[in-house]
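Worked example 3 (structure in, sequence out).
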């Protein structure tokens, strides 16, 4: 029963209408956020981290691309009056270390942890690929193992996990998430973020709820919804 109740706990996204659609970041679920550079992916995840801390939990943030700007992290947490000591920043340098980190989460996650974020989750997978089908097959299998393991971590601990992913160009199809079949299969909720020519961003729910779009802007606090 305790595990069931924990799974029902959710972390607000910071976008009220999105919360009404998907229920926030729900325990036991994998949430995949992807989009172009500077589309607000990390800012949206940082706001979730601040909200999780304000609810009395700790956050494990795995920086898979080692591109986290600490100044931005502190800005979002300070603006939201979230205790910075409650965020555990874990940088990983290669695909092997990413796998070791995920296995460590699988083997034991602190009960005080209320949210796990993997920023640039598919970055090291893409770097590890050689461009040859035979050589790359084991890399895809390892990413599938890692993602399935994250799902198990979410279910076992009753916490939400956010994976932030990149996009790449697919001839004739436009932009697609890196390793979309693997990550998309295991994800319970998929959110796509897009840039616009005006600087306003657009969030679209692609899985986990009805068709939905939300315009938003990036702020010191993370993100802010615009319009209805």
């Amino acid at each position: 029963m305790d595990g069931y109740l924990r799974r029902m706990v959710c972390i607000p996204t910071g976008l009220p209408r999105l919360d009404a659609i998907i229920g926030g970041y729900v325990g036991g679920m994998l949430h995949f956020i992807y989009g172009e550079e500077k589309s607000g992916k990390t800012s949206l995840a940082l706001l979730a981290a601040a909200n999780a801390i304000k609810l009395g939990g700790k956050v494990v943030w795995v920086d898979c691309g080692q591109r986290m700007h600490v100044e931005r992290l502190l800005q979002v947490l300070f603006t939201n009056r979230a205790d910075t000591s409650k965020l555990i920043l874990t940088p990983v340098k290669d695909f092997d270390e990413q796998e070791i980190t995920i296995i460590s989460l699988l083997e034991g996650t602190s009960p005080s942890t209320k949210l796990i974020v993997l920023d640039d989750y598919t970055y090291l997978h893409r770097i590890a690929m050689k461009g040859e089908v035979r050589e790359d097959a084991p890399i895809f299998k390892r990413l599938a193992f890692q993602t399935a393991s994250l799902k198990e971590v979410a279910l076992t601990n009753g916490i939400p996990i956010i994976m932030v992913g990149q996009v790449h160009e697919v001839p004739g199809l436009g932009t697609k998430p890196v390793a979309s079949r693997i990550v998309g299969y295991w994800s319970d909720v998929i959110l796509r973020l897009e840039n616009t020519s005006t600087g306003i961003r657009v969030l679209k729910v692609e899985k986990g709820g009805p068709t939905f779009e939300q315009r938003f802007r990036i702020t010191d606090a993370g993100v802010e919804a615009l319009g209805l």
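Notes: The radius of gyration is 17 Å. Residues 1-7 have pLDDT under 50 and may be disordered.
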